[in-house]
Amino acid sequence: MGAAVVALISAVGVWAVWRVMVVTWSGQRTEEAAFEGADRFQDALARLADPVLELGGMRWLVVGSLVAVAVALVRGRWLVAGQVAVLIAGANVTTQVVKAEILYRPDHLVGWNSGVNTLPSGHTTVAASVWAGLLLAAPRRLRPLVAVGGAAATSAMAVATIVDRWHRPSDVVAAVLVVLAWGALLCALTPRSALDRPGESDGGGFTVTVAVLLGAGALVTAVVAVPAIATVAGFGPLPTSGLMTAYAGAVLAVLSASLATTAALLVVRQATARPR
Q: Phosphatidic acid phosphatase type 2/haloperoxidase domain: from which residue to which, for each copy (predicted)?
């Protein structure tokens, strides 16, 4: 029941992020300020972001999917392998359909903000969904470590898309929510035969420790990000300091979303796969 609620909240969250940040003038203007801030550092940071962005292409999606499915098959968990495949495929198809066919972008601002909808981010969905698949496929005791790796990889991709001005912050937040929605939904539908085997240990409080650390990191970054973003929305032309505030707030917001969704999926997976 709890996993289904998480899936529903995540799905509604995608709509809410779009409604606030894309449909409203203040939302578009806030993200445009973040992009102007990113433009000041793009040349210097692109050399760090470009290699990360290459991992969000089709090759990584295919290779990562095969690895995640293979982990489940090596463990003899055929239904889990199916869950992994459905999660990765479902999240990425959802992102592309929602972006191209369902959501729209009003033309409140001129220039880069005009016309084409880019929410959710495809690159972020690729990275987050592959790691989410690995989280489902991994043995119970290794899931906390996979969650840490997934949080780091997803955060890196999320920040890279902002740094290189490929996506707006709302695109990234929506992408990780799409992945969490699919992951939580499949966890809610986990059949008895796909549960962890009796005797599999998660190392005592290891899962709790990792989830708390990820959640705390998400909370801390959100506490800093929200006021930074709030100071930008609704104002006129910003000085350089305001653009930097918007840029920093955007980076912290996507970091917070990446950490929080990873922590949530770890908790949901461990709870729904607990052996009976």
A: 80-187
